[in-house]
Amino acid sequence: MLSVIEVKEIAHLARLGIEDENVSAYADDLNGILMLMAQMSELNTDGVKAMAHPMDQVQRLRLDNVTENNQRDYFQTIAPQTEDGLYLVPKVIE
Q: Which long-range contacts (CB under 8 A, 24 or more apart) does 3-10 make?
């Protein structure tokens, strides 16, 4: 069970602003979620096949055809800075 103090600490770490009068409701909701997860972890899932979709459907795929013209040269001409076919960007990491 999460206490009100723990919920405040979690909210602080997540940079969430929770008003003091709502902390206890959040604690109840989070504890309910954790209890549900505990109940689900007790279920026997031996022999249950993992599924990507609950309806056992297959994703329809389209053919991998090129649908646009190559405009690389054009985009290179309107870019602020390029060199040897690469886009130059400002350094952001020291």
A: 3/27
| Residue 10 CB partners (closer than 8 Å, separation 6+) | 2, 30
Does residue 54 contact residue 34 with C-beta atoms inside 8 Å?
Answer: no
Q: Which token pair is 79? A: 């870019």
Is there a contact between 1 and 31 (Cβ–Cβ < 8 Å)? yes
Alpha-carbon distance of 4 to 22, in angstroms, equals: 10
Report pLDDT digits (tens) over 61-77.
Answer: 889 999 999 999 999 99
- Amino acid, single-letter form, for residue 3: S
pLDDT digits (tens, 9 = 90+) for 20-36: 999 999 999 999 999 99
